[in-house]
Amino acid sequence: MKYDGLVTSAQIEAVLDKLGGVEGVKRFLGEMPTVSEPSRLWSEKGGVISFAVVSDGTTGEEWIQRLEGKGDRVSDYAKSVLRSKDFQPTTGVTTEVRILKGEIFTDDGRITNKIRVEAAGRELVKPNAEVGCLVRYMFSDPDIEAMGLWWIVVMHDSIEDSGCHPLLLTAARGDAGRWLCTFNGHPGFKWGRCRGFAFVLPQGS
Length: 205
Fold this sequence. Notes:
The chain is an alpha+beta fold and 205 residues long.
């Protein structure tokens, strides 16, 4: 077929389809910058999630106000932990957090005291309880979902509620919204696979 120099509407549509429509044409012509996916605040290797948080001196009572002001929900038990004398905030401390995903443990090995032994073998230590607040504040529920988790349990020294039950602060996602809640901190407590267990690198390491 002889080419007569005319461009048909079918050919124009084919070019548009090839370039991804009008927006694709604009990007091709340099009229619209390509939008890149934002970088994640965390990385993962071998079932271990890594990131850093920095403390800012926020007290337990202030954390309640700060999180609820952001739209997060703070459970009554979490409020009890945050109001405890054992909740000790720091200021300007950078903490390297390491989350051991539940999937790296066997069902029989996913028990608090065994998880702590595994963490110690990786030269990880217990975090300050405020890490629970910093984690909840830092990550959205879609972030936690992208990690493949439902709950991030912060493995600090357990803090007892008024009934002397040992509790661990936990950042949780779910249909009811973003939560800072607690879980049982008893050494023999058995966990589900979809939890992550937050420890930290020793300071100065």
